[in-house]
Write a structure and sequence with these properties.
Elements (H helix, E strand, L loop, with lengths): L1 H6 L7 E4 L10 H13 L3 E4 L3 E7 L4 E5 L4 E4 L56 H15 L14 E3 L5 E5 L2 H6 L4 E7 L4 H5 L6 E7 L5 E7 L3 H13 L4 H6 L9 H10 L8
Parallel strand pairs: 1-2
Antiparallel strand pairs: 3-4, 4-5, 6-7, 7-10, 8-9, 9-10
Length: 279
Amino acid sequence: CEFASVFAPLGTSIDVVEVLPQILAGVDPRVVTQFRRLMEKQGIRFHTGRRLEEIAEYRADELTARLDDGTLIDADVLLVSVGRRPETRGIGLEEAGVEVTDRGHVVVDDWLRTANPRIWAAGDCIGGLQLAHLASKEAERAVENALGHHPRPIDRTVVPSCIYTHPEIAMVGLNSQTAKEAGFTVKTGQARFLGNGKALGEAEPDGLAQLYADAQTDLLVGATIMGVHAVEIVHEVGVAISDGLTMAELGDIIHAHPTVSEVVMDGAEQGEGVAPYLS
């Protein structure tokens, strides 16, 4: 979706084929619905629940792709983005007593220690979220633990994840779906960018901020933000989760006006029933 978001405004005809029933797997379904609507307005065509069956025909400067439902797509460029495969085979890990999964990921404990107590691992090779900032923090923690310097387990509950589309999408913690799967009764607060003066001043009215809290305790458990500067303002919610703030407490924090980050305050207030007009 990131490359589609870059090239569509330049006039490129884009078809996105997604084998899963929803694009942007792992993103809150409500946000995905709004995002897809915005992308389709730019002329991007989505084929969800479909698989690329074959390249039916190659020509000098064009090809024809056939999907599993028989749909034919003519294109001059085919971008395949299906993840990464770790290069962990054949380098002696098994001989060193390091356990590797069937998918090639190195097995580690919460301290990033492998089955060999003298070997630690971090980053993409251990699986999970493959994000540069998470890999950097894992590497830092693995070195500290290996040296016995204030050893601590790695905490992956508050890891921001960003999608650099237009509009941007940023997430931290849980969303409405994963929070329910984790056993929470979810309370949601939301605010639209259409009610944000700074976003309107930047001619970026499209967007939505959603905050999620445990309805029993009001403690924040996550957020999903779609809109201008989303990748910058999501960290505020990460800090709030780490510090154990409730949705009410986050809504009480005064935010400067006009700023895009006001959507975080507005969303928290809406979750407490203070500003329902912003929903």
